[in-house]
Amino acid sequence: MTANSSPVIDKIVTEERLLGSERRWRRFGEPAPAGKSLNGDGTPDYGVFGPGSMVWEVLLHPATVVFETVAQGTLQLHAPLWFGDTPTATRMAGHLRNIHRRVKGDVIDVGMPELGGYAATEPRDAMWAALTELHPVLWMYESFAYHGDGGPRQLTEEQRDQYVRELGVYLRLTGASAEDIPGSMAELDALYDKYWDFFGHSDTMNIVPETGEDNQELMVKAMQRNWHPSQQLAADMLHEVYEQFRTPILASFPERIQIKAGLSQVQRTEAVKALDDAQPLIRELQQPESERRIMRMMWGPDAIMLIESARELHRRALPWLPTS
């Protein structure tokens, strides 16, 4: 490669490259599972949430392991935060803050300049990044999670409040302001009301302020320009765990969120039907063999270790849970 030439990019995807090794998935040294280290007083360090928590009850369910990506629309970097000990979670939170310091701009939406700018590491935006990871996961859990022979079911009001209350430690770790951290579902609903103008669909939300180009179109062009037939392996994987469930997942969201996202009545009805039609496949993908395969593709070796360790701790804390 000469000084004026571009680096050569290997576009060929193999199954080995797709799965990756521990090294590809790690962002620092090997994570320590919750409960495997000790606090200063000699008690086990269970990390941010810990066994017996409602958050672990939701996050450790096979439905969450399989469908978490489509529920929140992001890639996995969360297992060390959710299932590691406190030092592991703290290091990962710091790593994410370092990455996100560059995620900022003067304009959220060129069509609505009154919204102002954004900065991913500032308290408001850091808080909503965390909440929009874990609140949609709760919605998905209630519509996707099978329990033995029983189908998906709603949590009680007390369990939902507990889930929100337990998120407080995580929100503080990610940089949220103490005065905004909700302690119940009612307080979380009020928080949505407070920031309601920042939610929703807009025809101009994807416009790049400096150029006027559509960011989504730029992404599609980049993918087309760099396409190699072997990349169909990755495309097939994303279709299995993401694309084919994008419409069903919308049916799990509250109606006012669906409307704010720009869904018409027809689209909301179609989403409900899509969720109903997808139930046999949703249940099949939560079976142990399917879950293990998807876990390896989407979470990586370290996360598998963290999840399995956390599940064992959670089963001991709640012995009535099934063993698989």
Compact overview of the structure:
This protein has 324 residues and is mostly helical.
Give structural notes.
- By secondary structure, the chain is mainly alpha-helical.
- The chain has helices spanning 15-19, 22-25, 54-59, 62-72, 79-83, 86-100, 123-144, 157-174, 185-194, 215-225, 232-241, 246-250, 255-260, 265-285, 288-298, 301-317, and strands at residues 104-105, 118-119.
- The protein is built from 16 helices and two strands.
- A two-stranded antiparallel sheet has the order 1-2.
- Helix 7 packs antiparallel against helix 8.
- The longest helix has 22 residues, at 123-144.
- It is globular and about 55 Å long.
- The mean pLDDT is 92.
Distance N to C terminus: 52 Å
* Helix and strand composition category: mainly alpha
How would you describe the shape? globular
Largest sheet: 2 strands, antiparallel
Overall average pLDDT? 92
Query: What's the count of strands?
Result: 2
Rg, please? 21 Å
Q: Provide the low-confidence segments as ranges.
A: none
The proportion of residues forming helix, as a percent range, comes to 40-55%
**What fraction of the residues are assigned to beta strands by DSSP?**
under 5%
Main sheet: which strands, in order across?
Answer: 1-2
Number of helices: 16
**What pattern of helices and strands is seen along the backbone?**
HHHHHHEEHHHHHHHHHH
